[in-house]
Design brief:
Length: about 150
């Protein structure tokens, strides 16, 4: 993965691929899913994120709405990373992603394609775009744990 981090062209291609062909980009509107609306005051980002949990597992994550390139691509990658993970694994991935965005040391293997956003923290106006879907999923994760208490 380290070689990937050194090639800005590959990182751009990852972002553009997830922007043009976002994964899990359709809502179910099912009662089995928790849902949250996320909107940014500083960008066009206005999305809904849905997640389905089964006890301690992330069964599915989906999103839809209008978002900029960074918002769409980062949310698309996040959905791919979270599906099939335990809630604890999901929290670890989220924490590593935020570390990366904040310019701290992070586990690049754990983040997989999300490393494409490693330089977003250098552009303060893009941080909200790169984290909007992640923060939405994190809200749903917290809500799912409150339901099980």
């Amino acid at each position: 993965m380290s070689e990937l981090l050194k090639n800005p062209q590959i990182l751009r291609e990852i972002i553009m691929d997830h922007y043009q062909y976002p994964h899990n980009h359709e809502l179910t509107h099912s009662d089995e899913y928790l849902s949250v609306h996320m909107a940014s005051e500083s960008c066009i980002d206005d999305i809904h994120v849905e997640a389905k949990f089964d006890a301690n597992k992330v069964v599915d994550v989906r999103f839809d709405g209008v978002a900029c390139t960074i918002g769409t691509a980062s949310t698309s990658i996040m959905t791919e990373l979270m599906i099939g993970k335990t809630k604890e694994e999901a929290r670890t991935i989220i924490a590593e992603y935020y570390k990366m965005i904040d310019g701290q040391a992070y586990d690049e293997e754990l983040l997989e394609e999300a490393v494409a956003f490693q330089n977003v923290g250098k552009q303060a106006n893009r941080i909200k775009c790169a984290t909007i879907g992640w923060k939405g999923f994190e809200e749903l994760l917290n809500e799912s744990e409150k339901e099980h208490e």
